[in-house]
Structure prediction request, 289 residues.
Amino acid sequence: MTNIDRPRRSALFMPASNPKVLAKARSLPADVIILDLEDAVAPELKAEARAAAVAEVQAGGFGHREVVIRANGLDTEWGADDLVAIARSGADAVLVPKVSSPEDIASYEAALSGAPEQLQLWTMIETCGSVIRLDAIAAMTASTRLSLWVMGTNDLAKEMRARQTPQRTPFLPMLSFAVAAARAHGIAILDGVCNEFRDMDLFRAEAEQGLLFGFDGKSLIHPDQIAPCNEVFSPSQDEVRWAQTVIAAFALPENAGKGAIRVDGKMVELLHLEQARRVVVVAERIRKG
Ligand code: COA
Ligand code: MG
Prediction:
């Protein structure tokens, strides 16, 4: 499975300091589980949360889900210990907060030098510095474990002093630039969280907006957000049918060697064939679970 066609429709944050919440991790249908040691954990519970998260990952049983631990930053008193513990935990990825430059990525890479090769480095994009250096940060994927970004719209709003509106107007340019920078370097990218976890209409509209921007999926804070999120980010039956039609049309002997063909009265190019193949692969992976 490549980084780009792995289904990551839904990524649920869980405070690692809350045992009741952690107990649910294996039964929830999220594609990604993120055990949080950072924003969701009070300072006096940091060490306890770290131990609980590592124990949870080591206990296993997460099936097809990717299991990720979000560390505290290396500029905090907990960051270095978090990274040592996460490196040994068997987690699929460590998610790190508040990176702002390629040098920050290099620091995390160095701190993870002893970790197993398969441990991925995921980062939040949540500082103003990261937004203006998106391309340089993304380019670090070539020489490091960096493989995925998560938009951190709450921290961005705080740093920018921007207001969070239902349409997310202040963030729209950076959401699309972040997707473009991620795609330019083959990094996967997840949209930010929707804080209004009781307002399912607002949630669905925000998830659909994220899909339009090209995000692979969305980060979540509450289990009620998982089902609508999975629905929005799964290829629809119509999309899969159309993708299969495009693939079949290009496979016809009369279309061999052609770059552009006509399918059901529409112009279809080889680039659509590539898109169609991805849709079919992702849909198949989702179906298999
Ligand atoms: N993961 C797993 N289970 C969760 C959950 C989560 N993120 N959030 C809530 N639940 C569980 C609750 O434990 C509760 O379980 P119960 O029915 O067995 O009692 C159930 O879902 C319903 O919870 P609810 O009463 O609707 O919400 P709450 O008031 O308990 O919690 C929040 C609300 C926002 C505090 C909580 O959802 C949360 O902590 N979310 C994650 C925050 C986070 O990680 N932030 C950092 C990233 S932005
Ligand atoms: Mg944050």
Observations:
- The first strand starts at residue 10 and ends at 15.
- The pocket of coenzyme A (ligand 1) is lined by residues 12-15, 20-21, 24, 36, 39-40, 193, 221-223 (CB under 6 Å).
- The chain has two domains: 10-233, 237-288.
- The chain has twelve helices and ten strands.
